[in-house]
Amino acid sequence: KVDYDVCSNYGNWLYSAGIGNDPRGNRKFNVIKQGLDYDGNGDYVRLWIPELQGIKGADVHTPWALNSAALSQAGVTLGKTYPQPVVTAPEWSRHINQSLRERSPHPRGRTGPTHTPVQRKQRGIDFYFSSKKAV
């Protein structure tokens, strides 16, 4: 079964390209964060990229950040069996480091937290439609 919704898919591609509808300036799509949030164990990545089958858990989202021993054990050779990254955005560093250290659980895509998740401030609809503008 393929999960596909035409409108959501096109909207997400536009958003990723930086031309989607977003009221916040300088907004960037973080593929590492999205992978960790929605595919915390990396099962979807391994389904579509068989070259990464040997990488366990969320490390599959950042194979270029693994040490040579872990890559060798997984049967991955960067630049040969899997390409080197074309771009590594500075905004990813927080999430790349998170994927290699203890991972904080996310309510989507994970089973059972390993520790108490950090409480985030709820942003409700007033966040998007506030009459006060940040300068």
TrEMBL record:
Cryptochrome/DNA photolyase FAD-binding domain location: 2-98
Q: Which SUPFAM superfamilies match?
A: Cryptochrome/photolyase FAD-binding domain
Q: How is the cofactor bound?
A: Binds 1 FAD per subunit.
Q: Which UniProt keywords apply?
A: FAD, Flavoprotein
Annotated FAD binding lies at 3-5
Ranges for the region named Disordered are 98-123
Q: What is the protein name given in its UniProt record? A: CRYD protein
Needed co-factor(s): FAD
One MF annotation (Gene Ontology) recorded for this entry = damaged DNA binding
Q: Which family does it belong to?
A: Belongs to the DNA photolyase class-1 family.
Q: Which InterPro entries does its entry note? A: Crypto/Photolyase_FAD-like_sf, Cryptochr/Photolyase_FAD-bd, Cryptochrome/DNA_photolyase_1
> Coding gene?
Crydash_1
The organism's taxonomic lineage, starting at the top: Eukaryota, Metazoa, Chordata, Craniata, Vertebrata
Is Flavoprotein one of the keywords?
Answer: yes
Q: Which GO terms describe its biological process?
A: photoreactive repair
- Tell whether Transcription is among the UniProt keywords: no
